[in-house]
């Protein structure tokens, strides 16, 4: 993975509502991963959906640890 392949996306923590930048790798396609909030340290579930026709188009959904995305 090259840093130039990473796309920054401004998001908000579903727990404390703190804004932070999430770096997304569009080359990996759709995926579900976890990221800890940089403020409250809560585990955030991250669902990334890539458009098969245009890998640069990403939909990002954040959820709490106990939510099903």
Automatic annotation (TrEMBL):
The family database entries (Pfam families) matched by this protein are listed as:
Zn_ribbon_21
The highest taxon in the source lineage is Bacteria
Q: Which InterPro entries does the protein's record reference?
A: UCP037225, zinc_ribbon_bacterial
Q: What is this protein called?
A: CPXCG motif-containing cysteine-rich protein
């Amino acid at each position: 993975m090259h840093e130039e392949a990473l796309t920054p996306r401004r998001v908000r923590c579903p727990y404390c509502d703190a804004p932070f930048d999430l770096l997304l790798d569009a080359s990996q396609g759709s995926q579900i991963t976890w990221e800890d909030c940089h403020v409250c340290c809560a585990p955030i579930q991250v669902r990334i959906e890539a458009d098969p026709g245009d890998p640069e188009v990403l939909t990002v959904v954040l959820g709490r640890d106990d939510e099903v995305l």
